[in-house]
Amino acid sequence: MIYRYRSQAELDLSLNARATVPDIGPLVADYARESAASRAALPCRVAVPYGPTPAERIDIFPARKPDSPIFVFIHGGYWRMLDASDSSFMARMFIEAGAAVVAVNYELAPVASIDEIVRQCRAALVHVWRNARGMNGDPARIHVSGSSAGGHLTGMMIAGGWTKEFGAPGLAIQSASPLSGLFDLEPVRLSNCNEWARLDVTAAARNSPLRHPPERPLPLVVSYAPNEAMEFAIQSEAYMVVCATRGCAVEFVPEPGTNHFDLPMRFMDGGSALSRAVLRAMGLAG
């Protein structure tokens, strides 16, 4: 047994989101197509740098009115695929609802370590916080969201203890929505995913949101697909418990009929249960 009574094959399968759908190709193509439609339909600033490398960039969709909440989305792809250009498919809905939208890009694994990916996403959040007014946003009303690896990274954004290191002690995330996330990277370290994650024991612990929960209570919306790979579902449930014990107002939102890959696209529909929950968490009509 490799991990919790699972063989190597069982552990690898429990982390294999691709095995839950026949083909991810059309789903990933939907991300790109709908994100391109958002850029065509809305005022936006594309590939705005937040750091020194080409990968450190964000796409910004300013809110229509000043002092609006900001929805920050961190893409998934198991830390090794996708791009900010695939990650703004929800912009039209959130802009219409009264928010600004930011899609975050980061250097992919294995070129970047998980430590470096977390650092880049935190640097992006600091940039958004410092420049919120320029996107008609309120720096005190930032909502962070992400799916799959982006759900993990969302957990690391709301973890305590890092903002002073980045020279932003006043940065406090207002609310968050990790979707289909991984919150304990020890099974990732032991699985075939470590071919690109390249985690050792200390890096897995350092980058596990279950070990670094929010340092203050905040509204948290969590969801995962009905047919989710086992480890994503188990860890989402465990993370909700840990955050609830820290005083977070945790809401689980089921979305029947979705899968690991199309779940975040429920954000395109302002009437979906997931969208309504997140809009409520952001202080918008939901």
Please tell me about this protein's structure:
It is a single chain. The protein is an alpha/beta fold and 286 residues long. The chain has a single domain, classed as 3-Layer(aba) Sandwich (Rossmann fold), CATH 3.40.50.1820. Helix content is 34%, strand content 16%. It contains ten helices and eight strands. A six-stranded mixed beta sheet has the order 1-2-4-3-5-6. The chain has a two-stranded parallel ribbon with strand order 7-8. Helix 9 links the parallel strand 7 and strand 8.
Q: Mean pLDDT across all residues, rounded?
A: 97
- How many beta-strand runs? 8
Question: According to CATH, what is the topology?
Answer: Rossmann fold
- Largest sheet descriptor: 6 strands, mixed
Q: Give the SSE order as H and E letters.
A: HHEEEHEHEHEHHHEHEH
Q: What share of the residues does DSSP label as strand, in percent?
A: 15-25%
Structurally, the number of domains stands at: 1
Strand order of the largest sheet: 1-2-4-3-5-6
In the predicted model, the low-confidence regions spanning at least 5 consecutive residues are: none
The CATH H-level superfamily is: Alpha/Beta hydrolase fold, catalytic domain
Question: CATH top level?
Answer: Alpha Beta
**How much is the radius of gyration in Å?**
17 Å
Number of helices: 10
Helix-residue proportion:
25-40%
Distance between the termini: 46 Å
Q: What best-fitting shape do the alpha-carbon axes yield?
A: globular
